[in-house]
Amino acid sequence: MKQSKDSEDLTRVGPGSVMGNFMRQYWIPAAKSSELEADGTPMRLLLLGEKLVAFRDSDGRPGVMDHMCPHRNASLVLGRNEEGGIRCIYHGWKFDVQGNCVDMPSVPPSQDFKDKVKAKAYPAVDRNGMLWVYMGERKVPPPLPMVEATLLGEGEVDISFMMRSCNWMQSLEGDIDTSHFGFLHVGHLDPGNVPEGHPLEHTATERAPEYHVRDTPWGTNYGAYRTVKPETTYWRFANYMFPFWTQTPQGEFPHNIQARAWVPLDDEHTMMIFWRRRSKKLGNTGAPLKDGKPLGGARPQPEFAPRDTGWLGRYKVVADESNDWTMDREAQRTNRIYSGIDHIGLQDQAVTESMGAITDHSHEHLGPGDLMIARTRRRALQAARAFASGTPAPGIDQPEVMMGARSGYFEEHQSVEWQQAYDEHMKQADRVLKPAAAGAEAAMAK
Ligand code: FES
Ligand SMILES: [Fe+2]
């Protein structure tokens, strides 16, 4: 399939690609810290098309490096995670977490050249239960990102992973595509069955909302609006944040501290990582409807496939093209579940994977409901190209700009203009860190 230059630059993430170089400027969430144990089994890690080995040394320090041993390319994933480093099982060379060769036992001491050999290692750190990797070229990496949900301590947040078999951008676009919600997820919902105050109250009655879109320092932002009572507007806000983050509106705006990273494993596979604050104050989409039952198609967990040690072996689900994403055609026919697929995330997974691994943008016909997607593609592509010609990647050295992003819903008097409504509700929102403190912390981290 021939892609336009724009599509190609937007979707490809390997070393040397426009988007790949841009993404490498940012710290990348890669794994749960708990996936690596000190002196435990090394793990295959695929990130931005690079095959890496991840392990934790005896002191608990994470190591992330090219999986191929610099001697003769045997995989260090097979290596022995020994005291203070990983040892290749082929000829016994040993590397510390910084990639230094610390032992070369297959070479006579008089000819030892371990000081001249280095594995390609990337800086890696743990924060709040997440392993972060920096794959850029700076000698001193930038400060860690300040996406607010990732600043919540362990115990304050639920973090879930799910692998998707398609390109990162088409995966991400599902989160900023407000007009699919009323069909894919709640097309079967009878508006008369929704109690007042239920999170689905307004999305079920008005399935073609209008919305505004704008560029922001962190990326893009939309506000979808509906008139729900005399003089009252119901707003749903959502965000794209550089380079691969989203925030979706399913939660009450002041309390809704959440974020999703759509981390490219390679051009055709993406790891979704979802942080959601633990809070009783968040709206629960699965709360009972008037008939006492929850929304159909909203089971809490998809079925995960057994984990294996391959490059794509982590957080796979059973649902895929070979089983029509576990679609129940009877449920679809009878409209018990509009899509026939029982799990909201799987419904998204099915439609985006069904487009093909890297979809053909020239085949599309974008409508007014796709304004946010078009704007976000353009914004991401422009930022990546600007970086290629020397402009710093946005938010790298001012990570606190990401803290300006919040998603969720609220009601407001119709006379309040949309950006003002956002700013006012932001002032009253729960914050993990006050924005001023965030700026100070970021400055210290430099
Ligand atoms: S290939 Fe690793 S030590 Fe020889
Ligand atoms: Fe969705």
UniProtKB/TrEMBL annotation:
Keyword Ion transport included in the entry's annotation: no
The keyword Metal-binding belongs to this UniProt entry's keyword annotation: yes
Region (Disordered): 284-306
Keywords: 2Fe-2S, Iron, Iron-sulfur, Metal-binding, Oxidoreductase
Domain Rieske: 27-133
PANTHER family: BLR4922 PROTEIN (PTHR21266:SF59), IRON-SULFUR DOMAIN CONTAINING PROTEIN (PTHR21266)
Protein name: Rieske 2Fe-2S domain-containing protein
Organism expressing this protein natively: Caenimonas terrae
